[in-house]
Amino acid sequence: MEKRLFTSECVTNGHPDKVADSISDAILDACLTQDPGSRVACETMVTTNFCIICGEITTKAVVDYKEIAREAIRKIGYVYPGDGFDADSVEIQCRIHTQSADIALGTNDEVGGAGDQGMMFGGACTQTPELMPLPVALSRALCNRLTECVHSTDLLRPDGKTQVTVEYDENGKVIGVDTVVVSIMHSADFEMEELRKYVRDGVVAPVLKNYGFDIADVAHIHINPTGNFVIGGPNGDTGLTGRKIIVDTYGGYFSHGGGAFSGKDPTKVDRSAAYMARYMAKNLVAAGLAEQVQVQLAYAIGVAEPVSVRVDSYGTGKISDEKMTELLRATVDMTPGGIISRFQLRRPIYAPTAAAGHFGVEDRPWEATDIADKLKALAGTSLIYKDSRGDFARGRLREVNSVHLGTHIELSFTLCEAEQEGLC
After folding, report:
1. Which residue has the higher pLDDT, 118 or 418?
2. Could you tell me if 52 and 76 are in contact, meaning their C-beta atoms sit under 8 angstroms apart?
3. C-alpha closest to that of 351 among 41, 25, 66
């Protein structure tokens, strides 16, 4: 029988697209450090020893964009002149202007509207301790470990990619890891078989172990499968801000609305509302209300409240998806201003997200599970039980309607049809 497999990939912070993301977010942080009200939409392109910074920035901050870019490139590890892209010799040009006054009319602090229309998704599941899908969590962990190795030896270079395939059973439960792929840029002095052993023993094995898997049980492991990877980074491929939107989220396991994150200040709901959607999904799962959840938000430009909110628990919910949506609406302020306030997003916190990931990282404010207990209490989950057939057992509730009244919770419910008919 054909295996049930799902694959996700990740890239290191030295991948060309991630170099561009890192520069854009470093510029955003520099603006927010001096002026928390900065409006930033910064796009970067990098190629062989060349970088161009474009976009719309309205700020009181005085920022040397070129120097910020050089420092970001240096921090990533592009410091070797012979590699075709390095912090000291790269040519940098800037083409930056201020934000459109028309857009500002509906998104200033007085109006508080969304910076654009669009839909954003957030997801969470019980496959990993960080409540992320296992394929993308492993891929991210492998990339972060590769980055640590890059900074511990001059035989490796910053550009790299990982990919993990996970096998699931018919109920969507993890069976094991089927395939791991790792490619890492390296010095010409690093002999290939030695590199492969280094990555297998120092990267793949410990990361798998951290997630409870043994490398010996993985059927397929490919390390630098094409052989040499000496020409890489922006010298090998042109990089652009916002081209790694699946890497930045859930590896394709959950939906994506199409908007990128890096280089955008928090009035841009492409970014801030995606963080809120993750926060809400994660708290629903942490509250035990479902094993897997996707939350969709959608906004209209210049309008503060979302035009739609939707929860999908893929049939794993202990209460209905509609009730979970109601709980979120009653608990969380989903306006751009409310999101910014809850997570304190007018701070210089964004450069690390471009490098090490937006989701599944403990210190990100939107990764907190601080409303899980409240959601659980409002839902009255102690009253709910679902058996293996997806039917509710005798004496339990099919639905719980919760209305929060001050310090009290008012519950109304309906019994399962079978119980009403005296059959259970």
Report:
1. 118
2. no
3. 25
